[in-house]
């Protein structure tokens, strides 16, 4: 998994992986699978969406983000292809992916509650050529890496996700985010209090819930904790300020609610793989 994702720690003893965010990594990755070819063979969690496709057989596995996944449940037979992608890539501008999980309809299928983390869907015969062509086009763009390949790869991915949303449209209610009003409130609190210190307990108090209950609810529906979303929003705003202003790193830190510049730099490096100063230089070069 190291080549496809970044080890982000453990949750209740289970390894957690995040999609790497650096200037050299495309927002989409494609991996051809086969017997024994899964990157990880034990139960794990990843904080990004994954599709495992067999268009020829008309099958696609929707692998949930944020929940333990049993690799044995995924279809890794010869001819299977895994598509990994950063949900941030579906957003618009440097503040992406905020608030991707709340408003982006193309990500709803990845919030299912299957016990093994894998939901298997059937691709209608009339749509299988679209899937084959889309995956082939993704491979070509990511292999040749011609000018504009990232945008082209995202365009092909978006077509596949639109079709996935249509396929899953008639699924039972376990695919619907029944707790959307609470999620909306969580994101609204984080947005409103972006420039000040903010903890899980602060958010829970404003939502009228216990911290434990809110943590479980948000993690189950989005794959991330409230704390992770607070950091994500701060990093999204920091990216926008680094690109769109000449503010010092210290002032950027203060504007995103992190008065300690050193702590801000460590958080930014953990998320982006480099310091805010270097990130700004690479992006504006």
Automatic annotation (TrEMBL):
Transmembrane segments: none
InterPro entries attached to this UniProt entry: AraC_XylS_family_regulators, Homeodomain-like_sf, HTH_AraC, HTH_AraC-typ_CS
Species per Swiss-Prot/TrEMBL record: Mycolicibacterium parafortuitum (Mycobacterium parafortuitum)
Entry's Gene Ontology molecular function annotations: DNA-binding transcription factor activity; sequence-specific DNA binding
Official protein name in the record: Transcriptional regulatory protein [Nocardia brasiliensis ATCC]
Limits of the HTH araC/xylS-type domain: 184-282
Keywords associated with the record: DNA-binding, Transcription, Transcription regulation
